[in-house]
Amino acid sequence: MEVLVSLCLILPLIYSFFTLFKMILQRRGQNCYMLAYECFMPPADTKLDTDLAARIVMRNKNLGLEEYRFLLKTMVSSGIGESTYCPRNVIEGRAACPTLKDSYAEIDEIMFDTLDGLFRKTGFSPSDIDILVVNVSLFSPAPSLTARIINRYKMREDIKAFNLAGMGCSASVVAMDVVQRLFKSHQNSVAVVVSTEDLGAHWYCGKNKMMLLSNCLFRSGGCSMLFTNKPSLKHLAILKLKHMERTQFGANDEAYGCCMQVEDEEGYRGFQLTKNLVKSAAKALTLNLESLAPKILPLWELIRFLSVALRHSRKTKKDIIQAVAGGGLNFKSGIDHFCVHPGGRAVIDGVGKGLGLTEYDLEPARMALHRWGNTSAGGLWYVLGYMEAKKRLKKGDKILMISLGAGFKCNNCVWEVMKDMEDPNVWKDCIDNYPPTSVMNPFTAKYDWLHDEYLNFVRFDTSKISVD
């Protein structure tokens, strides 16, 4: 009888112990580790220097003097240098009539080059991949791009494949969120994310200024990344995903329309960027950080900020805003590095001002914009690559990735560095030259004559522009 009573007392304890042990193991299996990433290095013959940019601009016979001046001013002040890359159909003058073959050629080169490099770097085989997520906003063929990759690498028949389209520049973080959620129900898995964009088929050939902006900012690029939730591979990880926060601001009409693919009055299709873009980005980022801050900042910083707000609670609304902004949250108290989407100089400046960041904090984003341009969803990884090539990332550091995209949305995440990162990666050929003394494009110095009577004389004769 005593034995029976003892068993009745002990068995629930044993059951509780094993249940707790199982929960701990499940939680370990739900972690998301990054094992490696591979950014795309476009071929040298697609480099878009100042002379080639001038020739491409002059091909557009729809432009008048005002549009040419606008493009000249935009190029000079964009923060983009002379070493970015452009799709071949744009360089060869076929952007007005893009073909499906052009789109496949552009996307295949980026996807397969980065995937080949990723498998070669890590030693993983395509047959090891359990989950595949591809995001390309402006190109969604049938069969899907995930199916194209599966066919090329002869991946397993039970692979979980997802194709994301129309998600804009922040699609890379959306893809990682998909992976993270799948990891919670699929233990001991390995995942690949491919992030890039199809630019050649969506080159704008009209004269609407707000649509010409995309031609000035967007450039070729992309990245493939390898993730896992296997505890046995933790020692190989370079980063661990700590937090993820996604904010969709599309219910606001102004934000929804600030970054949109449309046709102009003459039927030319392009990507329209309105003057409301920076304001919408600021609002979306504020909403996102309101949710993310309590998860990533130390308690003492939250208490300090709350005390500042309460101290000015009886003042006017304007005074409260100024006081809170002046004593705003110090994100550096919980974050070591800021990986800001290199969407444009205005976006980088806005994020920097809003978070109180220094030029050192913004340097990776500015340099990625200067060297590679806005490579859409792949842009964050060129910024991360700069930090790594400069040997800034040390074990235990926290990285805040800030991405903004059409919709309008803000998707942010926080990584923990698992080991010192020192791979020169895609920056290896030029990292010693960064940061340069000036990030201004020399376009105006070479083509200051692009105005008034002379411009009107040469606008239909591109042979007058030297490309030697």
Order of helices and strands: HEEHHEHHEHEHEHEEHEEHHHEHHHEEHH
Strand content: 15-25%
Structural class: alpha+beta
Q: Uncertain spans, ≥5 residues at pLDDT below 50?
A: 15-26, 316-327, 449-468
Report the strand count.
13
Q: What is the correct CATH architecture of the largest domain?
A: 3-Layer(aba) Sandwich
| Percent in helix | 40-55%
Write down the CATH topology of the largest domain: Peroxisomal Thiolase, Chain A, domain 1
What is the CATH homologous superfamily assignment of the largest domain? Thiolase/Chalcone synthase
> If helices are DSSP runs of H or I spanning 4 or more residues, what is the number of helices?
17
Walk me through this protein's architecture.
This protein is of the alpha+beta class and 468 residues long. The protein has two domains: 31-240 and 443-450, Thiolase/Chalcone synthase (Peroxisomal Thiolase, Chain A, domain 1, 3-Layer(aba) Sandwich); 243-413, Peroxisomal Thiolase, Chain A, domain 1 (3-Layer(aba) Sandwich). Helices cover 43% and strands 16% of the residues. It has 17 helices and 13 strands. The strands form three sheets. It has a nine-stranded mixed sheet with strand order 5-4-6-7-1-8-13-12-11, sandwiched between helices. Strand 4, helix 6 and strand 5 (160-164) form a beta-alpha-beta unit. The chain is globular, with a radius of gyration of 25 Å. Mean pLDDT is 85; it is low at 15-26, 316-327 and 449-468.
